[in-house]
């Protein structure tokens, strides 16, 4: 092959004509209708919304596609898209634990201008659900999607069983009844494991989000907190020690085998199969357990209460729009958010088991008629307390989860684990 | 004469240009897909880049490396990685060699055995991890069911601190072994028959033939297999990610997972890159040492 002018000119012409062909195809692509892509946690709430999506598409012509994955994989997958020049996901489901990090990193579009332009009414939203997601006077990065306050799901048939009642009375001198303190709950859990042929508690002890969320319920119920009034880390307290000692006792002696490595999915399957007495979990799991097709063994036998001790972990998800998307995509995403959080759609979702963030949905007659336990759910939401929300919440969840896992596995004392967790929290707060 | 030299130089020049024309696209591609990420990771590791403040400057020198070396979790991860890699590579090699030797003697249905053996290798590590996670689920998994009907106690395979790493290693051996089998079987098939025939004439027994003929002749293939697997195992990430998330406690937090946590949970891309670089250096060092030892043993053998 000889390299001369003619060869070079031929190559150049080929390259130019190739580029022209590619370029000519671009306007046709731009004219295509917008499709919204969202990365969603694979939980009932997502499926409830997904079933309603054809209505939205029919009304607006905007197609919405959900990619469903487990919670542990969501953060990394979102971060890699949010740091890319253009995000594939153009509408976001954002956990409250990331509500400090994502705006601080500059990844989310401010929704305030969208609200003002469309005159969207935020007043029906329960204020705490907006606060949980970092709403300020000047900025709004997330619109509440649903709440996930945690409470106690328990087997009504087991707690009302006469033989078990008599055995419990003989063993402890107390009546077997719905526990009102953390100590009573752990005692009943251990009793059930020893006497009822089921795990006393289906626990999610895998390090990270599962055990951090679960432990938070124990902490709040024991009267402890992550931060003191001055905003400093406060985990090395007597209340926190009581909470962790009871947590470890329950995971070692009351919970199912393998609880230290279990996730939410594991606990759901266990409870659904009738192999557990109780489960500290999100209150909206109740309709799933009551589903006679999916969980025939326990349907109709499961009750909901506020976390024994009075306070559970409160959390929530919100809708956001990534900054690294086109204005057209952002407009389409905002149209979707308005629709999915409207009263009509929220009521439809609630009738399928949605955990509302709008007060008008909790008061809706049709919802209360179908789910009388929404009254208890409101108490669960009202008494819930939040995990500390700041830029490094996700890292703190991992750090705390590691210490809890060490304590649960007998590799660290509760004092050492709490000191490390408290120092770690302060270190991240100071970062 | 002068013209002949001129023609020779011209021909050589054309050859040189043609050679570069063929090699350049490949070299450019390599520079883009390998050189650039490596260089970028190197810069990241000495930068102040985090996901919250995505800026490379100011460069901080070896500060990220120093902070990592001062972290006891790093040493825990390194020690776990060394133990994990050693056990998996030895396990894969010993079992793989055994199977390869058996297959080498087998005549019938060889393709079927190879096809079956290739299945684990063809599966993605994530799928393998998910399948094993279900099989080992303590309450509903089949592993404990089989233990129970065999009269053995049920085990918490991935939740017991002393057991989780070795459960993960066993799964890894199960998947990676087929690669070792295939490479070693190919190596065995390529060995010349003459030394064996001579040994048989001399009355050498089977194990003597294996020890004094097969193993020495298989050494280059075995060495390559071991080094490839060692590099693979040092980089293990998928299994702890799906099976344990590094837990219980820090019992399965190997070096790759440590780097991932630093980068994506700690939001510190710079520290994650520093950890990844340390991993790269260790693997490079191991490779160099391994090849040096191999070369020395081969040249020593040549002198005999």
TrEMBL record, chain A:
InterPro entries per the UniProt record, alphabetical: Bact_solute-bd_prot1, SBP
- Kindly state which keywords UniProt assigns to this record, in alphabetical order: Periplasm, Signal, Transport
Cellular-component GO terms for this entry = periplasmic space
Q: Where does the record locate the signal sequence feature?
A: 1-30
| Keyword presence, Plastid | no
The listed locations are:
Periplasm
Show the Pfam families listed in the entry.
SBP_bac_1
Which Gene3D superfamilies did the record assign? Periplasmic binding protein-like II
Q: Domain of life of the organism in this record? A: Bacteria
Is the keyword Transport in the record?
yes
The Swiss-Prot or TrEMBL record describes its family as follows: Belongs to the bacterial solute-binding protein 1 family.
PANTHER family (alphabetical): ABC TRANSPORTER PERIPLASMIC-BINDING PROTEIN YCJN-RELATED, ARABINOSE-BINDING PROTEIN-RELATED
What's the protein name? Extracellular solute-binding protein family 1
UniProtKB/TrEMBL annotation, chain B:
Which regions span the lipid bilayer? 21-46, 82-103, 112-132, 163-189, 210-231, 273-294
Single GO BP term = transmembrane transport
Origin species, per record, is Mesorhizobium ciceri biovar biserrulae (strain HAMBI 2942 / LMG 23838 / WSM1271)
Kindly list the places in or outside the cell where this protein is found, as annotated in its UniProt entry.
Cell membrane
The name on file for this protein is Binding-protein-dependent transport systems inner membrane component
Arranged from A to Z, the UniProt key words for this protein are: Cell membrane, Membrane, Transmembrane, Transmembrane helix, Transport
InterPro entries per the record? MetI-like (IPR000515), MetI-like_sf (IPR035906), UgpAE/MalFG_permease (IPR050809)
Give every ABC transmembrane type-1 domain span.
78-290
Q: Which family does it belong to?
A: Belongs to the binding-protein-dependent transport system permease family.
Membrane topology classification = Multi-pass membrane protein
Organism phylogeny: Bacteria, Pseudomonadati, Pseudomonadota, Alphaproteobacteria, Hyphomicrobiales
Main location group: membrane
Q: Which GO terms describe its cellular component?
A: plasma membrane
Name the domain of life: Bacteria
């Amino acid at each position: 092959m000889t390299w001369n002018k003619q060869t070079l000119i031929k190559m150049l012409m080929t390259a130019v004509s190739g580029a022209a062909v590619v370029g000519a195809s671009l306007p046709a692509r731009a004219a295509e209708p917008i499709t919204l892509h969202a990365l969603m946690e694979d939980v009932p709430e997502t499926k409830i919304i997904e079933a309603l999506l054809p209505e939205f598409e029919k009304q607006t012509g905007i197609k919405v596609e959900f990619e469903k994955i487990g919670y542990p994989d969501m953060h990394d997958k979102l971060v890699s898209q949010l740091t890319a020049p253009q995000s594939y996901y153009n509408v976001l489901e954002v956990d409250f634990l990331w509500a400090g990090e994502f705006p601080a990193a500059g990844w989310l579009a401010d929704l305030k201008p969208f609200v003002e332009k469309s005159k969207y009414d935020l007043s029906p939203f329960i204020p705490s659900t907006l606060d949980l997601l970092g709403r300020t006077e000047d900025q709004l990065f997330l619109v509440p999607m649903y709440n996930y306050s945690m409470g106690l799901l328990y087997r009504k048939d087991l707690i009302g069983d006469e033989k078990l009642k008599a055995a419990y009375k003989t063993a402890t001198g107390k009546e077997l009844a719905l526990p009102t303190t953390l100590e009573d709950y752990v005692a009943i859990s251990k009793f059930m494991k020893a006497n009822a042929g089921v795990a006393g508690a289906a626990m999610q002890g895998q390090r990270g989000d599962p055990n951090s969320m679960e432990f938070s319920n124990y902490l709040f119920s024991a009267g402890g907190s992550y931060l003191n009034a001055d905003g400093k880390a406060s985990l090395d307290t007597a209340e926190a020690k009581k909470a962790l000692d009871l947590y470890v006792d329950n995971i070692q002696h009351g919970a199912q085998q393998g609880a230290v490595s279990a996730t939410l999915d594991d606990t759901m399957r266990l409870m659904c199969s009738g192999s557990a007495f109780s489960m500290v979990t999100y209150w909206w799991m109740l309709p799933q357990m009551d589903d006679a097709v999916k969980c025939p063994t326990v349907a109709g036998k499961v009750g909901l209460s506020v976390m024994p001790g009075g306070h559970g972990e409160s959390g929530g998800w919100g809708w956001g729009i990534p900054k690294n998307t086109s204005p057209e995509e952002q407009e389409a995403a905002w149209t979707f958010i308005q629709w999915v959080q409207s009263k009509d759609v929220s009521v439809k979702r609630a009738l399928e088991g949605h955990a509302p963030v709008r007060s008008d949905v909790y008061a809706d007659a049709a919802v209360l008629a179908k789910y009388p336990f929404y009254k208890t759910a409101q108490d669960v939401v009202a008494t819930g307390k939040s995990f500390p929300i700041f830029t490094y919440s996700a890292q703190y969840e991992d750090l705390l989860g590691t210490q809890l896992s060490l304590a649960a596995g007998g590799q660290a004392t509760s004092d050492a684990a709490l000191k490390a967790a408290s120092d770690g929290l302060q270190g991240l707060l100071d970062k | 004469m002068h013209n002949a030299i001129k023609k020779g130089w011209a021909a050589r020049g054309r050859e040189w240009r043609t050679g570069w024309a063929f090699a350049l696209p490949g070299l450019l591609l390599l520079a883009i897909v390998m050189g650039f990420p490596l260089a970028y990771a190197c810069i990241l590791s000495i930068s102040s880049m985090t996901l919250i403040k995505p800026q490379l400057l100011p460069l901080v020198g070896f500060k990220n490396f120093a902070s990592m070396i001062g972290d006891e979790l790093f040493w825990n991860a390194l020690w776990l990685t060394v133990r994990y890699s050693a056990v998996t590579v030895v396990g894969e090699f010993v079992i793989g060699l055994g199977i390869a030797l058996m297959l080498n003697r087998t005549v019938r249905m060889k393709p079927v055995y190879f096809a079956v053996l290739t299945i684990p290798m063809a599966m993605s590590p994530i799928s393998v991890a998910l399948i094993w996670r279900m099989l080992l689920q303590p309450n509903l998994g089949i592993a404990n069911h089989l233990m129970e009907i065999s009269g053995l106690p049920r085990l918490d395979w991935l939740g017991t601190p002393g057991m989780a790493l070795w459960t993960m290693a066993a799964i890894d051996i199960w998947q990676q072994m087929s690669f070792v089998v295939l490479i070693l079987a190919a190596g065995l098939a390529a060995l010349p028959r003459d030394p064996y025939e001579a040994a048989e004439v001399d009355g050498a027994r089977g194990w003597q033939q294996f020890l004094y003929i097969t193993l020495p002749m298989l050494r280059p293939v075995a060495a390559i297999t071991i080094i490839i697997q060692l590099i693979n195992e040092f980089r293990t990430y998928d299994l702890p990610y799906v099976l344990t998330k590094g837990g219980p406690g820090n019992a399965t937090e190997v070096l790759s997972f440590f780097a991932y946590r630093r980068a994506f949970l700690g939001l510190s891309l710079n520290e994650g890159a520093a950890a990844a670089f340390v991993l790269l250096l260790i693997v490079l060092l191991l490779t160099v040492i391994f090849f040096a030892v191999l070369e020395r043993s081969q040249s020593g053998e040549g002198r005999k």
